[in-house]
Amino acid sequence: MQLINYFTAAAALAVAALATPLPNHDTDNSTLVGPETGHLVVVGGALQSEAIWQRIIALAGGPSAPIVVVPTAGGEPSYDSSFPSAATLRSLGAQNVTVLHTYDPGVADTDAFVAPLLRARGVFFAGGRQWRLVDAYAGTKAEAAFRGVLGRGGVVAGSSAGASILGSFLARGDTASNTVLVGDHTVGFGYLRNTAVDQHVLARNRHFDMFEITRAYPGLLGLAVDEDTALVVRGDEAEVVGSTYALVYDGGFWSREGSWERELPGPGERFYFLREGDRYDLGKRRVIEPSGMGGGEEE
Ligand SMILES: *[C@@H]1O[C@H](CO)[C@@H](O)[C@H](O)[C@H]1NC(C)=O
Ligand SMILES: *[C@@H]1O[C@H](CO)[C@@H](O)[C@H](O)[C@H]1NC(C)=O
Fold first, then answer.
1. What is the pTM of this model?
2. Cα angle, residue 159 at apex, residues 15 and 77 outer, rounded to 5°
3. 12 pLDDT more than 80
């Protein structure tokens, strides 16, 4: 009994501690959720589809656009220019791909380190553990330069850990385990304001995990992207690209078959799926209705 009380009290304290406001990265006073200029490509891990890679290259400005690949989330002792994501981009026609890496924020804060980023039109954050990106780059010239790529109209893309880092709330940021949703690192790079991004969602049966985050931070928009699928974001519009689904946790529910009476959980714990071609308004938090929709399509 005493043990139970102890843990209940500890849990209550933990929740109280978590309810403190998160720092935000707004420097431009924008009211948009996504970037005002440039694009994000938010990939749910296991990126295979040539269509998604080609979208990243196209949004950077085409095959000659300089693209910087950041492997740091991976945690390997070192990296070279043959890193797989860089090799894939080159094999698909990208002619100017640089691999940029350090674990040392002192290095990430130097002009020499950020030089390739100042000319880049694209950045790709590869997978691993998202906290490593925070420890290496948060608050450095490199972090400012990543954001600068968007400011110049380029693309910032990421897969798996590289997707979660794009949100303002860092989902699964715990250094001990990727099963801890609200961990010891909670602040992402924030290109998506007031938003948490999860990945590998259907492939790993993670579809209920987002509620751990939205319970602690009820105002957040939750986006969870499945493997080999992406959300392409500009301003307040997110479009699904790829073979499976993106899940939206906005307290609402949507179905392409229209709405009718059905039993749903409370607004705090609803989500719904968007598939290839579906578009979502991040600011209004509702689906942009496909044209010509209406009436049930029989399966
Ligand atoms: C954002 O708003 C603050 C406070 O109103 C103002 O001081 C600052 O100059 C604004 N920044 C930009 C980039 O407009
Ligand atoms: C890659 O892009 C940078 C920045 O525009 C440029 O300085 C460099 O010459 C390019 N390299 C190649 C091989 O095209």
1. 0.88
2. 90
3. no
Ligand 1 centroid from CA 24, angstroms: 14
Residue 137 inside a domain? The answer is: yes
State how far the Cα of 264 lies from the Cα of 284, in Å rounded to an integer.
21
As a whole number of angstroms, the distance between CA 272 and CA 207 comes to: 10
Q: Is the dihedral of CA 10, 15, 21, 26 positive or negative?
A: positive
User: Ligand 2 — pocket residues by CB below 6 A?
Assistant: 66, 95-96, 119
3-state secondary structure of 245: strand
Any idea what the CATH number is for the domain that residue 78 is in? Answer: 3.40.50.880
Instruction: Name the residue with the closest Cα to ligand 1, atom 4.
Output: 29
Decide if 10 is inside a domain.
no
- Two structure tokens written together for 230: 């992406």
Question: Can you tell me whether residue 149 is helix, strand or coil?
Answer: helix
Domain count of the fold of the chain: 1
26 within a domain of the structure (yes/no): no
What residues make up the domain containing 164? 38-255+265-285
At 259-283, the pLDDT tens digits run 666 788 988 899 999 999 999 999 9
Secondary structure class of 159 (helix, strand, coil): strand
- 28 within ligand 1 shell (Cβ under 6 A): yes
User: For residues 181 and 48, what is the distance between their CA atoms, to the nearest angstrom?
Assistant: 26
Cβ–Cβ under 8 Å, residues 40 and 30: no
* Residue 238 φ then ψ, to 5°: -120, 130
Residues 6+ positions from 263 with CB-CB distance below 8 Å: none
Specify the 3-state DSSP secondary structure of 243: coil
> Does 245 map to a domain?
yes
